[in-house]
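agent> Task received from the user: take the single chain below, predict its 3D structure, and emit structure tokens. No templates, no multimer pairing.
agent> Plan: (1) validate residues, (2) run structure prediction, (3) serialize to tokens, (4) report one or two observations.
agent> Step 1 OK, no nonstandard residues flagged.
tool_call: predict_structure(input=
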Amino acid sequence: MNKNTALISALFLAILIVTTACIPQGAINSDPAVSVPQILETTEVVVEEAHSDHDGHDHSHEGHSHEEYVTTPEVSEEEIAATAAAKAVEVRIAAEAKAQAEAAEEAARIQAEQAAAEEAARVAAEQEAQRQAEAAAAAAAACKTDAVHGVITSYCGYEGTYQSQVQAAADALPAELKTAFVDVEIVNGCHPNAFASMGRCVYGVWDSAGWDADTHGNAWSRSLWVSNRGVESGRLTDIMVHEAGHAYSFNIARNCVNEDTDNTYREDARTIFGGEEPFADGITAYYNGAGAFQNYRGTGTALSVAETDILEKMFSSC
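)
tool_result: status=success, residues=318
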């Protein structure tokens, strides 16, 4: 109850007292159900309530209003636009900051995953290298056996799974290359020296001296090897021509002199091609085309005029 209510109640009480004083005695007591004390008692309650309310909260003067409608302050269109623009900038900046933070977190996650993958690959590579080293050591130890010349099944590293296919590829070589195959053995196997040095069964090997893991003079001297892995690569014809090229280089070209240079054709060809392996690749491209597998020159590399000339001259002269 507010102060106005209390004031009205007090004023009503005063009027009641004055009025009662002026009423005859009989009139007052005409209604036995209502007496002055009762009226006063009722009035006191109202006053007490007024005072009680006064001691509590003043709703009209202490910030509490009974108004049901509110009008907000008016702002110019320019100020509204400026405020909206400023808020839009804040939202954009916050969004960009969030996006940058998320991008940085994602980049950190990716970097961590890459680092973990690289570490796993490094460990796997080390384990594989260790495995290959152990296998090479075992192969080297296994090579210390008594192989019999001409009995290829006794040669260290012999596999034999594709022996007939490898021999057929050798039989199908061009006539010029087959001239180098006098006393040359064709072996389907994983050459022991190549395995010891490379840690895997390479596609093919030309072995002029009979090498095992670390010594030469074994029963398989003057042998041409193609491994199971080489055959399974689908490149048997190219591998055979490449290794036959080495056999031709050793058995024919190194003893055949180029009259124009007084060098052997092997020397001149190695100079033009840039070494023995590119020379053998060049022979492969000469017979099987530029699309043949060329491990050293690069598959698809065509022969130059000079390279073609030296090969044609060599094959026609030797």
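agent> Step 4: summary for the user.
Residues 152-317 form one domain.
agent> Done.
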